TrEMBL record:
Transmembrane segments: none annotated. This is MarR family transcriptional regulator. It comes from the Bacteria. Residues 16-150 form the HTH marR-type domain. Keywords: DNA-binding, Transcription, Transcription regulation. The lineage of its organism: Bacteria, Bacillati, Actinomycetota, Actinomycetes, Kitasatosporales. InterPro entries: HTH_MarR-typ (IPR000835), MarR/SlyA-like (IPR039422), Tscrpt_reg_MarR-type_CS (IPR023187), WH-like_DNA-bd_sf (IPR036388), WH_DNA-bd_sf (IPR036390).
Amino acid sequence: MPPTPDATPPAADGLLDDLQHQVAVFARRAEQTRLGGVGQVRNSMDRAAYLLLNRLDREGPTGVKALAAGMGIDSSTVTRQVAPLVDTGLVKRASHPEDGRAVVLELSPRGRARLNDVRFSRRRLMELLTEDWTEDERTDFCALLTRFNAALSARHTTVTAAASRDVSRAPAS
């Protein structure tokens, strides 16, 4: 019997089960190693710090709200995650170039050096893990992983927006 339009064919169920399992294993392995790379900097920077430093490096001085929006998290989370980076001198607070009353976060020279060390280590790890892959396989994997992450991000945005609408429609008690 052919599958109904809203049902997943049984063969696809098995593939989707395998896919969800492999994503779960990947998440666990990534967390175990924090994709820490090789050498002295292995496991020395957590995911939140790495992603924040990376974004500041790519975008330059950025306000907390813009940083939060770009990362798909709330401002209080960014503030909490940035605090230890400021305390350790990896990030510095500065006056906004156009509005001196506003504060922006920027990567310090020490933060840039640290980020470069971690990037090098992680890049070396990716090289080791995929040393028997062709360049095309690396390219395809990166493209598919980028597409997968974009789909996750879009899904998160949709779910978050729907939850916000539901909360705003809820009757006050």
